[in-house]
Amino acid sequence: MRNFYEILNVTENVTKEELKSSYKKMAKKYHPDLNPGDKEAEEKFKEINYAYEVLSDDEKRQIYDTYGEEGLKGNYSTSGGGFGGFSDIFDDIFDIFGSGGGFSSSSYKRSKNYPQKGTDINVEITLDFFEAVFGCQKEINVKVTDDCPRCHGQKAEPGTSKNTCDKCHGEGQIRVESASAFGRIVRTTICDKCHGSGEIIEKACTKCKGKGKILNSKKINVKIPAGVDNGNIVSLPNQGNSGDNGGGKGDIYVYIKVREDSIFKRRGNDLFIDMPITYSDAVLGGTIKVPTLKKIVDYDIPKATKGGTTFKIKGQGVPFVNKNIKGDLYFTVNILIPKKISEEERKILEKLRDNDTEIKHEQKNFFEKVKDFFE
């Protein structure tokens, strides 16, 4: 599996600023226009472009860090065609050549008619503690834009024509020259004939009003893997909003929130519980009952167990997502002191107190230390 951090020559704790800086250097080094005819450089540039597209996006980066490249399900284009979202970076890269260097950053900006992937949709769901631990199926309701079923996203009424704008040649923008005290100025502005669409439509579609899209409400079943926790994201590839000009659909990102449990406390993939035991079990030792996620198990505690002692049951914690391993279960014993005792129990305890030489010896040592502290 490819390591996107190594591809961009950065560490996994890289900041966005450091990531952008490294990307700019490598993109300049391997850009096809700076390496004409070099197929190896061209492929390297595609790989760099792909890695940066993932790591520069917080949602995609978290999915990659959690699930690896497999979690992305191949949704991001590695064709190297078009640089939408990167124009500011390429502006910086080619600024070093100056206006006379033969490069124009505008030539790298995306045309209005270039295929563009649809936007992503974010959804938040709340799971019960055990739903998160064992995994589950959840149904979500989302509003998604789809291609219009009448015009199939073409915006024009079926049977009518749609042509490339002859003024901007489909770019959606035109160059305007004007004179100033400093000489001629060339600026780019939205085409006034097609209003930036790059197209001339004879008659707009009657269903979508020329938008090419309609809004639908959908119910989608989401498979939640076992072991998810607060802040985890489940991705639904190609189920987001429809793209433009033949571009693919966006994705749906499901953000996970998990309710707390009254018994089990989770830290990572380990579980922690407070386990009440009797005074006699603490003194004499013995077998106690301990709850785990699936059943109650027997556990032998040693004699003379002190309150606050923590024990571990290996492999009884929460499963790691998409891995065949689990965390551990830790339980801390709390000794229960009865509020009411019988007369017989009181006599037994008094006898124990009078005859417990070990406890008295420890108490004596303690107060001798206190005395030394004040002297």
TrEMBL record:
Domain of life: Bacteria
Broad class of the protein's primary localization: cytoplasm
Record's comment describing the protein's domains: The J domain is necessary and sufficient to stimulate DnaK ATPase activity. Zinc center 1 plays an important role in the autonomous, DnaK-independent chaperone activity of DnaJ. Zinc center 2 is essential for interaction with DnaK and for DnaJ activity.
Cross-referenced HAMAP family: DnaJ (MF_01152)
Matching NCBIfam families: DnaJ_bact, PRK10767.1
Family: Belongs to the DnaJ family.
Record's protein name: Chaperone protein DnaJ
Organism: Peptoniphilus lacrimalis 315-B
